[in-house]
Amino acid sequence: MLIIMVVSICGFAQEKRIAVGDVINITVLGHQELSQTVTVNRDGTIDYPLLSNVPVFGMTQTELRDILFPILARYVERPQLFLSIADYYIVEIQVQG
Questions:
Q1: pLDDT of 19-46, one tens digit each?
Q2: CB 57 within 8 A of CB 20
Q3: How many angstroms separate the CA atoms of 76 and 58, rounded?
Q4: What was the pLDDT predicted at 49?
Q5: Which residues contact 22 (CB under 8 A, 6 or more apart)?
Q6: Which of 4, 38, 68, 91 would suit a FRET pair with 26, their CA atoms being 20 to 30 Å apart?
Q7: Could you give the C-alpha distances from 3 to 6, 24, 70, in angstroms and in order?
Q8: Which of these, 92, 69, 91, lies nearest to 80 by C-alpha position?
Q9: What is the pTM of this model?
Q10: What CA–CA distance (Å, rounded) separates 11 from 9?
Q11: Alpha-carbon span 89 to 19, nearest angstrom
Q12: What are residue 51's DSSP bridge partners?
């Protein structure tokens, strides 16, 4: 008798790290002035209302949310904050040989 076992690895899918050139949608429900689409600058930062030059390079969306949420909570009662990567910057590498 042949028994085939399928092993499922429990865990979270690894979030993509934010890179230079990525476009990030930041949405704060009910606060259009705080909802922005930003591009990660060459120095790895984004410009966002209430803050300038926020370092985001290498972070995940969750990590960025964890940084922005308490800052927004100073100005907005119970902010509903949503982040998404609208466009990933892709570097194309060609190898010739």
A1: 999 999 999 999 999 999 999 999 999 9
A2: yes
A3: 27
A4: 85
A5: 39, 40, 85, 87, 88, 89
A6: 91
A7: 10, 47, 52
A8: 69
A9: 0.75
A10: 6
A11: 7
A12: 48
Q: What is the largest CA-CA distance in the chain?
A: 66
State both tokens at 31: 């606060």
Identify which of 29, 30, 72 has the alpha carbon closest to the alpha carbon of residue 48.
72
- The 3-class secondary structure across the chain, one letter per residue, is CCCCCCCCCCCCCCCCCCCCCCEEEEEECCCHHHCEEEECCCCCEEEECCEEEEECCCCCHHHHHHHHHHHHHCCCCCCCEEEEEEECCCCCCCCCC
**Amino acid identity for residue 62 in this structure:** T
Opening angle at CA 52, ends 46 and 56, nearest 5: 35
Q: Alpha-carbon distance 51 to 30, whole Å?
A: 19
43-85 pLDDT tens trace:
999 999 888 889 999 999 999 999 999 999 999 999 999 999 9
